[in-house]
Amino acid sequence: SKDGLAAACFTWTAAREIYTQLEVLRFQDGPIEPIEPLLNAWPVDESYIDYVVGRPRSGIVNDRDTWRALGAELLTVANERGSETNVSVGWHAIEFLLWGQDLDPNGPGDRPFTDFVDGGADAADRRRAYLRIVTDLLVQHLELLRDAWADGADTHRRRFVAEPAVALRSMLTGAAVLTAFEMCGERLAVAYETKDQEQEHSCFSDNTWADFVNNQLGVIGVLTGGTDAPALVSVLTLLRGKDEALAAHLAECLQRTLAALRAIPQPFDQAFLGEDDAPGRVAIEKALQALEQQAEAIAIAGRLLGYELPMRPGN
Questions:
Q1: What CA–CA distance (Å, rounded) separates 98 from 111?
Q2: Global pTM value
Q3: Does position 153 have pLDDT exceeding 90, yes or no?
Q4: Any idea of the CA torsion for 277, 278, 284, 290, to the nearest 10 degrees?
Q5: Is the pLDDT at 227 greater than 70, yes or no?
Q6: Is the separation of the CB atoms in 74 and 239 below 8 Å?
Q7: Which residues make Cβ contacts (< 8 Å) with residue 182, sequence separation at least 6?
Q8: For residue 225, what are the CA distances in angstroms to 216, 290, 309?
Protein backbone atom coordinates (compact mmCIF):
# COMPACT_ATOMS: atom_id res chain seq x y z
CA SER A 1 0.00 0.00 0.00
CA LYS A 2 1.00 3.63 -0.24
CA ASP A 3 1.23 3.84 3.55
CA GLY A 4 3.21 0.61 3.69
CA LEU A 5 5.82 1.92 1.27
CA ALA A 6 6.03 5.21 3.19
CA ALA A 7 6.56 3.27 6.43
CA ALA A 8 9.35 1.22 4.83
CA CYS A 9 11.07 4.40 3.63
CA PHE A 10 10.80 5.94 7.10
CA THR A 11 12.30 2.83 8.69
CA TRP A 12 15.19 2.78 6.21
CA THR A 13 15.96 6.41 7.09
CA ALA A 14 15.78 5.77 10.85
CA ALA A 15 18.07 2.74 10.63
CA ARG A 16 20.45 4.58 8.33
CA GLU A 17 20.89 7.32 10.94
CA ILE A 18 22.39 4.80 13.35
CA TYR A 19 24.53 2.99 10.77
CA THR A 20 26.20 6.16 9.50
CA GLN A 21 27.25 7.08 13.05
CA LEU A 22 29.08 3.74 13.18
CA GLU A 23 31.05 4.12 9.93
CA VAL A 24 33.90 5.60 11.97
CA LEU A 25 34.56 1.98 13.01
CA ARG A 26 35.72 1.22 9.45
CA PHE A 27 39.28 1.26 8.09
CA GLN A 28 40.84 -0.51 11.08
CA ASP A 29 40.71 -4.24 10.23
CA GLY A 30 37.55 -4.64 12.26
CA PRO A 31 34.65 -7.02 11.61
CA ILE A 32 32.99 -4.64 9.18
CA GLU A 33 35.77 -4.74 6.59
CA PRO A 34 35.02 -8.13 4.94
CA ILE A 35 31.33 -7.36 4.51
CA GLU A 36 31.34 -3.58 3.96
CA PRO A 37 30.94 -3.93 0.15
CA LEU A 38 27.78 -5.91 0.84
CA LEU A 39 26.51 -3.20 3.19
CA ASN A 40 27.21 0.19 1.70
CA ALA A 41 28.58 -0.09 -1.86
CA TRP A 42 27.85 2.91 -4.10
CA PRO A 43 27.35 4.57 -6.54
CA VAL A 44 24.62 2.34 -7.92
CA ASP A 45 23.86 1.61 -11.56
CA GLU A 46 20.10 1.53 -11.12
CA SER A 47 19.57 -0.36 -14.38
CA TYR A 48 21.50 -3.30 -12.94
CA ILE A 49 18.70 -3.81 -10.40
CA ASP A 50 15.44 -2.67 -12.01
CA TYR A 51 13.82 -0.56 -14.69
CA VAL A 52 14.88 3.02 -15.30
CA VAL A 53 13.54 5.74 -17.54
CA GLY A 54 13.87 4.61 -21.16
CA ARG A 55 14.70 1.01 -20.18
CA PRO A 56 11.53 -0.58 -18.82
CA ARG A 57 12.87 -4.14 -19.01
CA SER A 58 16.30 -3.60 -17.50
CA GLY A 59 17.75 -5.09 -14.36
CA ILE A 60 17.83 -8.31 -12.41
CA VAL A 61 14.21 -7.80 -11.39
CA ASN A 62 12.97 -7.90 -14.99
CA ASP A 63 15.47 -10.32 -16.54
CA ARG A 64 13.88 -13.67 -15.75
CA ASP A 65 16.00 -15.53 -18.31
CA THR A 66 19.42 -14.60 -16.89
CA TRP A 67 18.37 -14.34 -13.23
CA ARG A 68 15.81 -17.11 -12.93
CA ALA A 69 15.51 -17.89 -9.23
CA LEU A 70 16.22 -14.93 -6.97
CA GLY A 71 17.95 -15.79 -3.72
CA ALA A 72 20.39 -14.45 -1.17
CA GLU A 73 23.39 -16.33 -2.56
CA LEU A 74 22.67 -15.25 -6.13
CA LEU A 75 22.27 -11.57 -5.27
CA THR A 76 25.39 -11.65 -3.09
CA VAL A 77 27.48 -13.10 -5.93
CA ALA A 78 25.98 -10.52 -8.30
CA ASN A 79 27.18 -7.61 -6.15
CA GLU A 80 29.79 -5.55 -8.06
CA ARG A 81 30.01 -8.32 -10.66
CA GLY A 82 31.64 -6.85 -13.76
CA SER A 83 31.66 -3.29 -12.39
CA GLU A 84 31.87 -1.59 -9.01
CA THR A 85 28.60 0.21 -9.86
CA ASN A 86 26.79 -3.12 -10.37
CA VAL A 87 25.53 -2.97 -6.80
CA SER A 88 22.86 -5.58 -6.05
CA VAL A 89 22.66 -5.66 -2.24
CA GLY A 90 23.02 -3.37 0.76
CA TRP A 91 21.67 -0.03 1.93
CA HIS A 92 21.65 1.64 -1.48
CA ALA A 93 20.10 -1.27 -3.37
CA ILE A 94 17.26 -1.20 -0.84
CA GLU A 95 17.12 2.59 -1.12
CA PHE A 96 16.65 2.42 -4.90
CA LEU A 97 13.98 -0.25 -4.59
CA LEU A 98 12.06 1.90 -2.10
CA TRP A 99 12.40 5.34 -3.69
CA GLY A 100 13.20 4.62 -7.34
CA GLN A 101 15.19 7.04 -9.47
CA ASP A 102 15.47 10.59 -8.17
CA LEU A 103 14.08 12.58 -11.09
CA ASP A 104 12.80 15.49 -9.00
CA PRO A 105 15.32 18.33 -8.49
CA ASN A 106 13.48 19.42 -5.37
CA GLY A 107 12.93 16.09 -3.66
CA PRO A 108 13.72 12.37 -3.53
CA GLY A 109 12.60 9.59 -5.82
CA ASP A 110 8.91 8.78 -5.96
CA ARG A 111 8.44 5.11 -6.76
CA PRO A 112 4.73 4.24 -6.87
CA PHE A 113 3.61 1.59 -4.38
CA THR A 114 1.93 -0.17 -7.32
CA ASP A 115 5.39 -1.32 -8.44
CA PHE A 116 5.05 -3.95 -5.72
CA VAL A 117 1.41 -4.89 -6.39
CA ASP A 118 0.45 -7.73 -8.73
CA GLY A 119 -1.33 -6.20 -11.70
CA GLY A 120 0.03 -2.76 -10.86
CA ALA A 121 3.38 -3.17 -12.57
CA ASP A 122 5.42 -5.72 -14.48
CA ALA A 123 7.51 -8.08 -12.35
CA ALA A 124 5.86 -6.89 -9.12
CA ASP A 125 6.31 -10.36 -7.62
CA ARG A 126 10.03 -10.35 -8.40
CA ARG A 127 10.41 -6.80 -7.06
CA ARG A 128 8.78 -7.81 -3.77
CA ALA A 129 10.97 -10.89 -3.53
CA TYR A 130 14.12 -8.91 -4.32
CA LEU A 131 13.33 -6.29 -1.67
CA ARG A 132 12.67 -8.92 0.97
CA ILE A 133 15.87 -10.85 0.16
CA VAL A 134 18.21 -7.84 0.26
CA THR A 135 16.55 -6.48 3.40
CA ASP A 136 16.98 -9.81 5.17
CA LEU A 137 20.61 -9.88 4.02
CA LEU A 138 21.25 -6.41 5.44
CA VAL A 139 19.78 -7.44 8.78
CA GLN A 140 21.94 -10.58 8.84
CA HIS A 141 25.09 -8.58 8.11
CA LEU A 142 24.28 -6.00 10.77
CA GLU A 143 23.67 -8.83 13.26
CA LEU A 144 27.18 -10.11 12.50
CA LEU A 145 28.56 -6.70 13.47
CA ARG A 146 26.41 -6.53 16.59
CA ASP A 147 27.60 -9.96 17.70
CA ALA A 148 31.25 -9.12 16.97
CA TRP A 149 31.02 -6.16 19.36
CA ALA A 150 29.22 -8.13 22.07
CA ASP A 151 31.04 -9.15 25.22
CA GLY A 152 32.11 -12.76 24.86
CA ALA A 153 34.94 -15.19 25.10
CA ASP A 154 36.14 -14.79 21.51
CA THR A 155 34.69 -11.61 20.03
CA HIS A 156 36.24 -8.58 18.42
CA ARG A 157 35.18 -6.54 21.43
CA ARG A 158 37.14 -8.76 23.83
CA ARG A 159 40.28 -8.51 21.70
CA PHE A 160 39.77 -4.78 21.23
CA VAL A 161 39.62 -3.93 24.93
CA ALA A 162 42.44 -6.36 25.75
CA GLU A 163 44.96 -4.27 23.80
CA PRO A 164 44.42 -0.59 24.66
CA ALA A 165 47.32 0.68 22.55
CA VAL A 166 46.04 -1.12 19.47
CA ALA A 167 42.47 -0.04 20.22
CA LEU A 168 43.52 3.60 20.54
CA ARG A 169 45.31 3.50 17.20
CA SER A 170 42.24 1.86 15.62
CA MET A 171 39.95 4.59 16.94
CA LEU A 172 42.22 7.33 15.63
CA THR A 173 42.65 5.56 12.28
CA GLY A 174 38.91 5.19 11.74
CA ALA A 175 38.33 8.86 12.54
CA ALA A 176 41.22 10.00 10.33
CA VAL A 177 40.37 7.95 7.23
CA LEU A 178 36.63 8.58 7.45
CA THR A 179 37.33 12.32 7.72
CA ALA A 180 40.08 12.71 5.13
CA PHE A 181 39.35 10.06 2.53
CA GLU A 182 35.72 9.07 2.73
CA MET A 183 33.82 12.20 3.81
CA CYS A 184 36.09 14.92 2.47
CA GLY A 185 37.24 13.12 -0.67
CA GLU A 186 34.93 10.40 -1.93
CA ARG A 187 31.60 11.78 -0.75
CA LEU A 188 31.94 15.57 -0.71
CA ALA A 189 34.76 16.69 -3.01
CA VAL A 190 33.80 14.39 -5.91
CA ALA A 191 30.18 15.56 -5.87
CA TYR A 192 31.32 19.18 -5.58
CA GLU A 193 33.76 18.88 -8.48
CA THR A 194 31.62 16.82 -10.87
CA LYS A 195 28.17 18.28 -10.02
CA ASP A 196 26.94 14.77 -10.81
CA GLN A 197 23.87 13.56 -8.92
CA GLU A 198 25.11 9.98 -9.31
CA GLN A 199 27.99 10.91 -6.99
CA GLU A 200 25.58 11.81 -4.19
CA HIS A 201 25.88 9.18 -1.49
CA SER A 202 22.19 8.52 -0.77
CA CYS A 203 20.88 9.94 -4.02
CA PHE A 204 17.50 8.18 -4.25
CA SER A 205 16.21 9.23 -0.83
CA ASP A 206 17.98 12.61 -0.63
CA ASN A 207 19.36 11.45 2.72
CA THR A 208 22.95 12.52 1.98
CA TRP A 209 22.88 15.58 4.27
CA ALA A 210 21.91 13.33 7.20
CA ASP A 211 24.64 10.84 6.19
CA PHE A 212 27.29 13.56 6.53
CA VAL A 213 25.99 14.88 9.83
CA ASN A 214 25.76 11.41 11.36
CA ASN A 215 29.20 10.42 10.08
CA GLN A 216 30.57 13.46 11.92
CA LEU A 217 28.60 12.60 15.07
CA GLY A 218 30.27 9.19 14.91
CA VAL A 219 33.73 10.78 14.75
CA ILE A 220 32.84 13.01 17.71
CA GLY A 221 31.52 9.99 19.62
CA VAL A 222 34.71 7.98 19.15
CA LEU A 223 37.07 10.83 20.05
CA THR A 224 35.10 12.23 23.01
CA GLY A 225 33.40 9.09 24.27
CA GLY A 226 29.89 10.29 23.42
CA THR A 227 27.93 12.77 21.34
CA ASP A 228 25.94 14.13 24.31
CA ALA A 229 28.39 14.31 27.20
CA PRO A 230 32.12 13.57 27.03
CA ALA A 231 33.31 10.43 28.77
CA LEU A 232 35.59 10.67 31.79
CA VAL A 233 38.32 8.91 29.81
CA SER A 234 38.50 9.47 26.06
CA VAL A 235 40.95 10.21 23.28
CA LEU A 236 40.53 13.90 24.05
CA THR A 237 41.24 13.44 27.76
CA LEU A 238 44.40 11.48 26.92
CA LEU A 239 45.40 14.26 24.57
CA ARG A 240 44.76 16.93 27.21
CA GLY A 241 47.29 15.19 29.44
CA LYS A 242 49.96 15.81 26.81
CA ASP A 243 48.97 19.06 25.11
CA GLU A 244 46.01 21.07 26.37
CA ALA A 245 46.12 23.51 23.45
CA LEU A 246 46.09 20.74 20.84
CA ALA A 247 43.22 18.99 22.60
CA ALA A 248 41.24 22.24 22.61
CA HIS A 249 42.03 22.76 18.92
CA LEU A 250 40.82 19.26 18.01
CA ALA A 251 37.65 19.71 20.06
CA GLU A 252 37.03 23.00 18.26
CA CYS A 253 37.62 21.35 14.86
CA LEU A 254 35.08 18.63 15.64
CA GLN A 255 32.35 21.14 16.45
CA ARG A 256 33.26 23.48 13.58
CA THR A 257 33.02 20.61 11.09
CA LEU A 258 29.67 19.52 12.49
CA ALA A 259 28.34 23.07 12.13
CA ALA A 260 29.71 23.37 8.58
CA LEU A 261 28.09 20.11 7.48
CA ARG A 262 24.78 21.11 9.05
CA ALA A 263 24.99 24.45 7.17
CA ILE A 264 24.94 22.75 3.74
CA PRO A 265 21.49 23.44 2.22
CA GLN A 266 19.13 20.58 1.52
CA PRO A 267 18.67 18.73 -0.73
CA PHE A 268 22.37 18.08 -1.17
CA ASP A 269 22.06 17.32 -4.90
CA GLN A 270 20.98 20.93 -5.47
CA ALA A 271 23.56 22.45 -3.13
CA PHE A 272 26.52 21.48 -5.33
CA LEU A 273 25.02 22.96 -8.54
CA GLY A 274 25.60 26.43 -9.96
CA GLU A 275 28.60 28.74 -9.94
CA ASP A 276 31.20 28.59 -7.18
CA ASP A 277 29.70 31.66 -5.50
CA ALA A 278 26.27 30.00 -5.18
CA PRO A 279 25.25 29.61 -1.51
CA GLY A 280 25.22 25.81 -1.63
CA ARG A 281 28.67 25.54 -3.19
CA VAL A 282 30.07 28.11 -0.77
CA ALA A 283 28.70 26.04 2.13
CA ILE A 284 30.19 22.84 0.72
CA GLU A 285 33.57 24.56 0.25
CA LYS A 286 33.50 25.61 3.91
CA ALA A 287 32.66 22.05 4.93
CA LEU A 288 35.56 20.71 2.83
CA GLN A 289 37.94 23.14 4.53
CA ALA A 290 36.62 22.16 7.96
CA LEU A 291 37.09 18.45 7.18
CA GLU A 292 40.64 19.07 5.96
CA GLN A 293 41.48 20.94 9.16
CA GLN A 294 39.88 18.20 11.24
CA ALA A 295 41.90 15.51 9.44
CA GLU A 296 45.11 17.47 10.05
CA ALA A 297 44.27 17.89 13.75
CA ILE A 298 43.57 14.16 14.14
CA ALA A 299 46.87 13.31 12.41
CA ILE A 300 48.81 15.66 14.73
CA ALA A 301 47.02 14.22 17.75
CA GLY A 302 47.89 10.71 16.58
CA ARG A 303 51.58 11.58 16.32
CA LEU A 304 51.56 13.11 19.79
CA LEU A 305 50.05 9.89 21.13
CA GLY A 306 52.65 7.81 19.29
CA TYR A 307 50.94 6.83 16.03
CA GLU A 308 51.53 7.75 12.39
CA LEU A 309 47.98 7.61 11.06
CA PRO A 310 46.96 6.80 7.48
CA MET A 311 44.69 9.19 5.61
CA ARG A 312 43.58 6.57 3.08
CA PRO A 313 42.37 2.96 3.40
CA GLY A 314 45.11 0.36 3.38
CA ASN A 315 47.98 2.76 4.19
A1: 7
A2: 0.95
A3: no
A4: 40
A5: no
A6: no
A7: 23, 26, 27, 215
A8: 13, 21, 20
